[in-house]
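W.,

You were right to be curious about this one. When I first looked at the sequence I had no strong expectations either way, so I just let the prediction run and decided to look at it fresh. Below is the sequence, 103 residues in total, followed by the output.
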Amino acid sequence: MEAELLAIENKDVLAIKGLDNDTYNWTGTRTSAVELVYSLIASGSINNGNTETKKLMEYFGKVFNVDLHDYARIYYDIKNRKIPSKGLNYLKSSLDLKINKEI
C-alpha cells in the first residue's frame, strides 16, 4: 500500500512539473542513459555538480521510464570500454548531422 501511494505521489509531482512519465520514454540503451546522467553531473550542468548520483539516476529513471537501478555496474562497464564516451559521441554526431541538414 505504501509503495502504491509513493508511486501515485511521484506521478503527481511529475504531472505538476509538466512531465508525464507515460509520454516520455527513454528509447536509447540503459548504458547511454547512465553515461548521459554521469556526464551531466561531471560537467556541473545539474546543481553545479552538487547532486547525489543515486538520486539523479532515480529521478531520470522516473521521468523517462527507464530502470537504472544498476547504474554503478553500468558505469563500471563504461569506464572499461575502449571509447568511454561512445554514447555521448553518438549524441553529438546526431545533433551535428541534424544541424547540418538544416543549414
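Here's what jumped out at me. The chain has a mean pLDDT of 88. And, maybe more interesting for your project: The chain is about 65% helix and 0% strand.

Coffee later to discuss?

I.
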